[in-house]
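From the methods appendix. Each design record in this collection lists the tokenized structure first, followed by the designed amino acid sequence. Records were kept in a plain field format so they could be parsed without special tools. The example shown here is representative of the layout used throughout.

RECORD:
FOLD TOKENS (239 positions):
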């Protein structure tokens, strides 16, 4: 069990929960969270928003019973965190121009990704593109992690990015958004490597239950264990 340090209401149904736990979480990984004993039956997979070795933070949106329970958690209470799970985002050494593209709650893993790339990838520039259907959140925080921040409200954030301007693109959000971005890269014959973080439903988080299976060019893969990050061509290039 981990102690909750804060659970901030950001508006628009979004919350930022920070818990005390020693960890080695990396960008793009996730935890299985649980704040109840018996029901709902399953824990909930939530991407790591930030981590520093002693604490870990999660950005989530209230969309069902599990996240509704999370939203009522208070500082000082305990929560069960299992993880970190998944292979996370790749190292991009040698890449000079990196774009991070997120939509809705899919922006969550991009915060730690931006911090990590700026710290560990020498002389790279990082641009972040965030898409929201309603009021934007955490824009000041994201602004501090990147060279340029582009925020799109009510439109299509994929319209704002020129794939030809980047060496690598990392994206997380609705599947349709990521597929549109893949098709845009393919149409323009962009040389940038495109990495997508899938958000399939999960039950166990460790690859045992097969609930999160995803069809890829190499056959069915487990999003929780083989992913959640794949090359865009693996997922959307399937004939």
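DESIGN:
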């Amino acid at each position: 069990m981990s102690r909750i340090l804060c659970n901030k209401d950001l508006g628009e149904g979004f919350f930022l929960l920070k818990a005390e736990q020693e960890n080695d979480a990396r960008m793009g990984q996730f935890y299985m969270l649980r704040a109840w004993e018996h029901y709902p039956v399953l824990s909930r997979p939530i991407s790591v928003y930030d981590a520093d070795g002693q604490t870990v933070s999660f950005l989530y949106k209230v969309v069902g019973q599990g996240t509704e329970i999370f939203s009522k958690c208070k500082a000082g209470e305990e929560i069960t965190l299992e993880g970190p799970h998944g292979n996370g985002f790749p190292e991009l050494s040698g890449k000079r121009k990196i774009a991070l593209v997120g939509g809705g709650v899919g922006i969550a893993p991009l915060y730690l990704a931006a911090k990590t790339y700026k710290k560990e990838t020498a002389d790279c520039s990082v641009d972040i593109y965030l898409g929201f259907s309603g009021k934007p959140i955490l824009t000041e925080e994201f602004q501090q992690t990147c060279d340029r921040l582009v925020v799109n409200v009510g439109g299509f954030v994929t319209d704002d990015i020129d794939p030809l301007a980047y060496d690598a693109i990392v994206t997380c959000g609705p599947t349709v958004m990521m597929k549109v971005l893949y098709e845009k890269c393919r149409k323009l014959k962009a040389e940038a490597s495109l990495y997508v973080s899938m958000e399939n439903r999960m039950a166990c988080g460790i690859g045992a239950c097969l609930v999160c299976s995803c069809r890829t060019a190499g056959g069915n893969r487990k999003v929780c264990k083989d992913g959640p990050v794949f090359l865009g061509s693996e997922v959307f290039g399937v004939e």
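APPENDIX NOTE: The longest strand covers residues 2-11.
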